[in-house]
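User: I'm new to structure prediction. If I give you an amino acid sequence, what do you actually give back? Let's try with this one:
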Amino acid sequence: MTFTTIVSGFLATLTSPMTLFCTLLGTFVGLVFGSLPGLSATMGVALLIPMTFTLTPTNAIGMLLGVYIGGIAGGAVSAILLNIPGTPSSVVTTIDGYPMTQKGHAARALGWAAFSSGWGSIISWLLLITISPVLARLCTSFGSPEYAALAFFGLSIIAAVSGESIIKGLVAGLLGVSLSFVGIDPIWGDLRFTFGNINLMGGISTIAALIGLYSIPQILDSCLSPDNKKVSGKELSIKEIVPPLKEQAAHAMDILRSSLIGTIIGIIPATGGNIAAFIAYDQAKRFSKNPDNFGKGEPAGIIASEASNNGVCGGALIPMMTLGIPGDSVTAVLMGGLMIHGLQPGPALFTDHAPEVVGIFTTVLIATIFMVALQVFGIKIFVKTLNVPINYLDAVLVVLSLVGSYAIRGNMFDVYLTLFFGVGGYLLKKGGFPMAPVVLGLVLGSMFEGEFRRGMKLGGGNIAIFFTRPVSLLFILITMAVIISTAIRAHSRKQKK
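Assistant: Good question. You get back a string of structure tokens that encode the predicted 3D arrangement of the chain. For your 497 residues, that looks like this:
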């Protein structure tokens, strides 16, 4: 791929009205899908693929990439305004986003989310166009020991998202890990905790659990609360919404660190934005001068979550395009879209279809710009959601939540599961137990168990295999350092009190 090919392809894509329109449409659809509980970027991409059959490859992939980037960023809207994550990766955004809304800073929170998502996409895009083959080869060499160590590291973050009580956070995390055992044993194939119900053979649906734990308790809370605060969108200005450059510069390290974490996690197959957001949030809190502000409306918490989960977008494209290995569920669907248009992912893609590859890279940048612009100019509309009478808003949210849980697999059992988790989540919330550790345990519990047991089989039953491989040993050492430093910090905080 020559420099001339890159420049000409970049300019051709950038000046094509049809490409710009398709990417804009895809980004708008992605934001809508991302902001509605239960709908996801994966669903949006899958639904739009048939609409791209008559388009050129660049226009088609531009539309689908717009849905991907917009969908991941859109999850922050409902997370911040309603404390209901629109996507699994925006769970962490609720921790500091909703407290900012309660303090009357909803527009500023949405502004930070939009710009953090934009910076995360741009940094991952820079890595995508520069060192993607090297990064792909490095991170796709992971085996079971490395995945198990990564999941172990992820579970150690429970303390960071536990709120005021670490003990309650650990109990909630253990509950999530216990729920992850439901389904088929990953090694022997035995049924566990299914109680004879075939719907539980595949395990508990993460989306159904997520909607139940976050959406239903929040709706019940708002119905039963005598005082529901509203935020006015009448006096909002672009100046209030856009974070000042001085503040963005002050958070430059948070943005860069979280974006790099998101990109690296995105490159590793079968991980995803939710894991990246939890890890980035933990590191942001660890490096912060005011860690006690996290969970109370700290912008750095929103920055960490949104920069990392949009950093995953560019990262997940790296193994998909260079090696033909999808980084997450969305890129698995995107890979199908590429092949439909005659583009076979892999090393030959960069030599046989150089103009199309440059066009795809360019549309990632265009979609990022559109995503930020649509959110900034749409924030006034988003914030007015809070001025809808609470009884109407709750009714709509209940319908959206239950329809969203049904739409994932077209299974009525998921609706019952959502209601079950909703009641359980409400009781946990009233007991002061945080929801984020439950989700983290549910997501990472099955991954850790399966990869740990496969790693043990690979090592002939000897646990030393996790300590003799450099990457897994590095993750284990980092995890132990995190656990020890968290314990020391908790002890010193207790002494100060």
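You can read the tokens as a compact description of the fold. Here is one thing that stands out. The CA atoms of residues 116 and 303 lie 5 Å apart.
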